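Schema walk-through. Below, the input block comes first and the output block second. Nothing else is stored per chain. Lengths vary across the set, and this one has 519 residues.
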Amino acid sequence: MSGDGYGRYDHGFVVPPMPPAPPPPPADGARAVAVAVLNLSGLGLGYAWTRRWVLMLLCWIATAALLLVALPADPDGVPGFALVLYAVFLALVAAHGARVGLRTRTAGPAPLALVLGLVLLAVPAGGVVLYDDARDEAVQQMLLDRLEEADRLVARSGRQAFSIGEDGYREALEMYEDLSADHPDSRAAGRVPNRMKTFYSTVGASYATGDHCAAIEPLTFLRKVPDDMPRTDLGELEEWPDDRLATSLYTCASQALTAGETGWATHFGELLTTFPDSEQAAKVEPAVGAAVTASSKELRGGEPCTAVERLRSLSSDIDGLPGEEAGVDDTLAQDAGRATANADSGTYLCGVDQYKDGDFEAAQTTMNEFVEENKNSKNRALAQKIAIAAEIAQTVPAAGKRLPTTRSGGSISVTVQNDSPDDITVLYTGPVTGSFTLKACGSCTTYSLSSTLSPGFEPCSSGKNYPERTISLPPGTTYFVHKPQGDSLSSPASDTAKLSSGYLYTECAYATQTLGTDF
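--- output ---
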C-alpha cells in the first residue's frame, strides 16, 4: 500500500504527561498571623489548621513536658530554665507557623481562625492565673507546715527540763519571728499571736505548778523574748513574765533563807535591782530581819556554834544586797549590823558548847576570838578562863571535865620555879583557873635524858636563884601545864597536883634534850 505515510501504524505505548501541580495560593498575611496566633496556645492548633500533624504533636509533647515540670504547684514556682525554654519554643513555633501559613491553603477563612486564636490565648493566660493561685496556696501550706514545726519544737521542749529544751525554744522563736515579720499577710502569721500565748505558758509552766525556784530561769528567758523578736508585736505578753518572776524570786529566796540554805541573796539581789518598786521587793527586808531574829534565838539552843556561823553568813550576805534602788539600803545595813553583833556575843556560847563537847582546841580558838573582839562583854573574864582550861585539857583531858569559873585565890601556897633556859607560860585549872609567865633562868641549861633518869636527879636544887612565882590555890586537884615561849622546840609538860590544906607546894619546870620540858 502506498501513500504519504498516513497509512503507517505505530504499535508503541506512550504514557500521557501528568497535569501540572496547582500553583501555590497567593501570600496571605492574615492567614500567617492566624496560624502564628493559633500556635501560641501551646497546642499546635495552627499546625492542625494547616494539616501539619507531626508538628502539632511536637507542640503537645512540649506543653505536656512543661505541665509535668510545673505541676503540682510548688512554692518556688516553675524553674526559670523551663519557662525560658518553653517561651523560646512558643516563639519559634509561632514564627514557623506564620511562615507555613503564609502560602498554605486552609479550610477556613483566616479572620475566623485569627479570632479563634485570640480567644484560645485566654487558655494559657487563665492557666497562668490558676497556677499563680495554686502556687500561692502552696506557699501558704509551706508556711503553715513551718508553723506546725515550730509548735512541735515548743511541745517537745516543754516536756524537758528548761536547760535541755532552751535551744528548742530559741529555734521555735526564730521561726515565729520569720513568719510574723517576713510573711505578715500569710495565714501562718495570723496564727502566731495565739502560738506565742502557748509558747509563754509552756515555758512558764513551772510557775503554774508552784515550783518557783525552777521557774526563775525560764521566766528570765521570757523577759528577753522581745529582744529576740524585735519585728513582732507581742502586746501584753511582753509584761507577762514580770510579776511571775518577781514572785518566784521572792518565794524561792525566802524559802532558802528560812531553811538556812545558800543562794537566797542572789535571788533577793536580782529582785531588788530588777523590780525595785514591786510588792515583792518590799518584802525582802522584813524577811531578812526575821531571819536574823530567828538565828539569834538559836544561840540559846543546842547548836550555838551553828547559829553563830549562820549569823555571820547572814551578815555578809545582807551586807552585799543592793538595796539602794528599793530604798532599803539603810535598813538592810542595820540588819547586817545586828547579825554581826549577835554573832559576836554568841561566840561565847559557841565556845562553851565546844568545851562541853570535848572539842578543846576549837573551844580555845573560839574563846580567844571572843576575848579579842568583845572588850566590854560581861562574859569576857570567864571566856579567858575557859580558853586557859581548854588549852590545858588538850594536854591533860581530865582538866576539861568541869567548866571553869571566875573564882580566884585560895589558902594553899604553890611556888612555881623555872629551871630552864626558856621563858615559859604556866597554865593551871581546877577549883580556880589562871596563867602567868616566868622568865628564863639565865644560868640554867637543858638536862640530858640520862641525867633525868638517875636516882639522885633533882631539878630546882637549892643554891640557885630561879625565876619563880607563888600563887594561892584552894584545896583540890589542880592541873598544870608549862609551855615554852618563843621559838623553843621544847614541848609542853604537865603535872596534876592534889592540894591539901596545911602544906606548901613547889612546882619546878625544866627542859630535857629529847623529850621536851618536864618538872
